[in-house]
Amino acid sequence: MAKDVSTRAATAPGPVSQAWAARRQAAVPRGVANATPLFIASGRGARITDADGRTYIDFAGGIGTLNVGHCHPRVVAAIKEQADRFLHTCFQVVMYEGYVAVAERLAALTPGAFPKKTLLLSSGAEAVENAVKIARAYTGRPAVIAFTNAFHGRTLGALALTGKEHPYKTSFGPFAPEIYHAPFPYVYRFPGRPGPEQCARACLAALEGMFHTVVAPERVAAIIVEPVQGEGGFIVPPREFLAGLRALCDRHRLLLIADEIQTGFGRTGRMFACEHFGIVPDVMVVAKSLAAGLPLSAVVGRADVMDAPEAGGLGGTYAGNPVACAAALAVLDVFEEERLVERARHLGERIQAALGAMAGRHALVGEVRALGPMAALELVRDRETREPAPEETGAVLARCREQGLIVIRCGLFNNVVRILVPLVATDDEVTSGLEILDGALRAVGRSVAPTL
């Protein structure tokens, strides 16, 4: 299968994509970066066909929004049916059933036995900012703690929470005040190279120390955390860290907000990543893969917390759009009927085994990180010094595209190859994509005996 794909791929995009790229250059700001030079014509499942008729296996999945794949028939049918009835009213003006149904489904799906309520919005960043608003309204406190290397969105409020300067924050400040960053247990790059448990303890101790030196806990409304850091490099924290955060929040009466925008809806082999760690957040934000690529996000949380803002304090003209709600209900049905969370666990085992084997063959691979099928390779120039290899990472991604695989990067140093394959991908498609990635690593780096 990989060989068949590669025969139709080429180093440079075809003439149709090139023509559109020229128009894009003239019409779209340079701040909008593009991971590939391709323009899509169609997509089905885990494959896309570009404007020049070349087909690729998609390991990017719209940056994790396509867990049910491109154009799932159930989702497309639901969108068409809703579009025939009505496209928009604004829920604050004339209500519709789909909004309430999605709110109910999400409240039932998310962890926690307590009563919950759900606010629907349009984007992940919008959900993050509303979660902060709700936390401040409930607690009457102004401060929020986020983490180094975190990513919570590109709007000004979300950027204040984001823990990476370039390119996300460069030249966009000043940012919202009363946001503080604590260290996240990025074990691979933590100073002194402690073990996972020691790293978790050090980060929790540093956070407690901030309460004496930076911001008093009685001024803190909430701590927001990604259960697995996404844009930061698919960093899976030690179990002790998230458990410690939950205990710390309980001790100081802070709200714990889990940003499950990239980790949610089966991406880690559970419906939500928090379930792996046995913690229940007070508030959760979700977005990617909720509506198969249509703009829909949500804040789900304790009913008493969610009811804190007064009437009119929450909402948005397009928030909870009826077509997106119809897509979301179809997505949740597909998860149940096709047992996609179970499928995710199967894919995770296959992907992790393959990446582990690649680490043994290729000196470029410094570390494999994964939770279920949310998997990544951090590429380095030297395994001892752990010098990041961003240029080599770019070369690997380009080589993959040449051979018919779309895969993207992330990480503090842009040196992490991340896998976000749709959960509906066939075993053959996953095998073919991993073989292409293996070949790209071989072409860019050199094969070595295992030294990890």
Write the layout of secondary structure elements.
Layout: H1 2-8, H2 15-27, E1 40-44, E2 47-50, E3 55-58, H3 61-64, H4 73-85, H5 97-109, E4 116-121, H6 124-139, E5 143-147, H7 156-161, E6 179-182, H8 196-213, E7 220-225, H9 239-252, E8 255-259, H10 274-277, E9 283-286, E10 297-302, H11 303-306, H12 322-337, H13 340-361, E11 365-371, E12 374-382, E13 387-388, H14 390-402, E14 405-406, E15 408-410, E16 416-419, H15 427-444
Parallel strand pairs: 3-14, 5-6, 5-7, 7-8, 8-9
Antiparallel strand pairs: 1-2, 2-3, 4-10, 9-10, 11-12, 12-13, 12-16, 15-16
Helix pairs in contact: 4-12, 5-12, 8-9, 13-15, 14-15
What's the short version?
This protein has about 450 residues and is of the alpha/beta class.
CATH architecture of the largest domain: 3-Layer(aba) Sandwich
Helix content: 40-55%
The termini sit apart by: 31 Å
**Strands, total number:** 16
CATH class label of the largest domain? Alpha Beta
- Which structural class matches the secondary elements? alpha/beta
- How many helices? 15
Q: For the record, what is the CATH homologous superfamily label of the largest domain?
A: Type I PLP-dependent aspartate aminotransferase-like (Major domain)
Strand content: 15-25%
Question: Looking across the biggest beta sheet, what order are the strands in?
Answer: 4-10-9-8-7-5-6
General shape: globular
State Rg.
22 Å
